[in-house]
Amino acid sequence: MRIAMIGSGYVGLVSGACLADFGHDVICIDKDAAKIEALKQNQIPIFEPGLEALVASNVRAGRLAFTTELAGPVGEADVVFIAVGTPSRRGDGHADLSYVYAAAREIALAAKGFTVVVTKSTVPVGTGDEVERVIRETNPDADVAVVSNPEFLREGAAIADFKRPDRIVVGLDGERGKEVMSEVYRPLYLNQAPILFTSRRSSELIKYAANAFLAMKITFINEMADLCESVGADVQAVSRGIGLDNRIGSKFLHAGPGYGGSCFPKDTLALVKTAQDQGTPLRLIETTVSINDQRKRAMARKVIQACGGEIRGKRVAILGLTFKPNTDDMREAPSLSIIQALQDAGARVSAFDPEGMEPARQLLADVHYAADAYDAAQDADVLVIVTEWDIFRALDLKRLKGTMRTPLMVDLRNIYRRDDVVREGFRYVSVGRPGDDAAFQLDVAAE
To answer: 20 to 30 Å CA-CA from 408: which of 66, 97, 311, 356?
Structure first.
């Protein structure tokens, strides 16, 4: 099939490359000429494992191309995906849909013959209705079917998620687009990936509901971790104990410094705003958003308490800046709030991240960006693990102790066993596990 992908960011580029790998002819469109030129040179603007090779192989095969011109590719396409950004609108938290509607207007003018227009971007309920209205208003003769097809891609595992999905959700009002969308995803039939055909509004809400539920699971186990610290229980045992119940499941039950990234913060807030506008407030999601915002700075207080309650003039080594491993995404990363709070308290910060330091430079001032973990720890009074990159899981603790001024580790991801760290002469503080001194207990309610 001939597919036009409007937007060459994370979702558009990954989706376009994977669809091309299925054998479709895909052209990715973006208004950013510098980005398109870089993509033509196989310079990938984001870090996603396997993406560079996937793009290169499909460009060589002639199935994937890049352009700034929209009219020609859309006019020739059987399917046009809208994969533009929907950031939180400044001031009120609603999703900014201006890029979606701008794309719809351009599609309306360029489409020729029957065309399926697919909203891949994460959008609030009712956006598909408005996209269809915009197209009809711009060009009453446009022969289109507007479909919702939300993405469920995890940064760091996006290619596997696209090719071996838990489910494919397709929302449409009427049957005209069903056959086309079935053909788009026909290569996945061998994997028996379930395709859920539903209404357009249900499809739009499924995406938001899924992200909100996962955000609630993260926030739930983080609050359980605080309780575990107070009563002397082990949050990892609690997580495993409840996760073995197949009604609950073990995923997203790892205590830490809170969620971040491009999806959960933006999507939970947009869902809250949508519900408030409809007069059906979602109290659980509202509370989730509030607790998560508080938790990030609360982790800075945990570090300060571990240092005896005073951190002014001390050096803090931060390992991990991105919101999760295997990405360079710094959006809403817990490290941003943690570092800012530590600096506000007078700390000097050094940091290392395998992929996140360049984007971090645009967001954080007065941070020493180190060559590696050991360079970051040089003369540090405390080492703080913020992101659980694999390279941080087996640090040479003897070497680390030798380079630090004070052998103190605050492990906000619980990637080490206490006994292993203490055996090497460290004081060790983790999240929600017994053994931390009472002085290091976290009072989240103080926020």
So the answer is: 356
